């Protein structure tokens, strides 16, 4: 168990760092995509279609070459 390797203070510091990074990430998303719901910013993993439904992506492509062509 990782808690055996870290002290309570180290675990608290690590969690504080992760929480800070997560807040920065959410702020970055909100700065570009204001309509994204808080429920979509909890660290989940989404498929492309799910991400599009949540407003987290600009578009979807069904092939790598089509994705590259859009840039």
The residue fraction in helices comes out at: 40-55%
Tell me the span between the first and last alpha carbons. Answer: 45 Å
Computed structural class: mainly alpha
Q: So what's the overall shape?
A: elongated
H/E element string? HHH
Mean pLDDT across the residues is 89
Strand content: under 5%
Radius of gyration: 17 Å
Biggest pleated-sheet summary? none
- In DSSP terms, counting alpha (H) and pi (I) runs of 4 or more, how many helices? 3
> What is the tally of beta strands?
0
| Sequence stretches where pLDDT stays below 50 over 5 or more residues | none
Question: What is shown here, in short?
Answer:
The protein is an all-alpha fold.
Summary tags:
71 residues, single chain, elongated, mainly alpha, 3 helices
Give the secondary structure arrangement, pairings included.
Elements: H1 8-32, H2 48-53, H3 64-69
């Amino acid at each position: 168990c990782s808690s055996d390797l870290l002290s309570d203070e180290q675990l608290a510091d690590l969690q504080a760092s992760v929480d800070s990074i997560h807040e920065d990430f959410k702020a970055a998303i909100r700065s570009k995509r204001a309509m994204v719901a808080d429920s979509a910013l909890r660290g989940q993993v989404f498929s492309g279609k799910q991400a599009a439904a949540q407003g987290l992506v600009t578009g979807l492509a069904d092939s790598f070459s089509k994705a590259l062509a859009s840039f």
